[in-house]
Amino acid sequence: MILVPGWMWRRGPASRAVGAGLAAGVFFGAFAVVEAKSWAGAVVVFVVLSLFYGTRVARRMGRIWPAAEGMNRTDRAAVVRATRRGEAIDDPRLAPAVAEYADALRRTAEEDRLHRWIVLLVTALAVALAVYDTVMSSTGETIASWLMVALFLADLMWWPRGRARLLARADRAEASARTRLG
Predict the structure, then answer these.
(1) Segments of the chain with pLDDT less than 50
(2) For residues 152 and 145, what is the distance between their CA atoms, to the nearest angstrom?
(3) What is the pTM of this model?
(4) Which helix (H) or strand (E) holds 2?
(5) CB 54, CB 22: distance < 8 Å
(6) C-alpha pair distances (Å), 91 with each of 43, 69, 163
(7) Spatial CB neighbours of 138, under 8 Å, sequence gap ≥ 6
(8) What are the domain boundaries of the chain?
């Protein structure tokens, strides 16, 4: 949920599922084309990831911040924007929602922190596969494998700092909202 861009909150649950699912499906479907040179495999990857990942993201978004469903699109997007930017919310009636969303971001970060070891394991496996592909496979497979390694390494290095900055901005927005509430 932390990586979901703020504009996705302007949409309803089904539209959020489609947006997140299509993005993942296209991205990893392209990897399937490059690595396997198979459009059929890419279609399977696209369909499976679009459905499952999109559904998972929408359900997680609804579970972690259930109050969002009771808000209209504009208010929900304003709360998310202000919280992610660390800004004061203009509308005082939305101050409680800023505090709720900031708390949802913190809970999500904590859940994600517990799963970071999986990213480490997958990165190690991706390195082993990339080395194998370099020696035994085609150029396309080798490029796709090393690109995946680069993405995992970028995630391992960039994400902790990005998460910390986002949570610091959310804390600032929440403090401002609580000041407005008195």
Answers:
(1) none
(2) 11
(3) 0.80
(4) none
(5) yes
(6) 45, 18, 26
(7) none
(8) 6-181
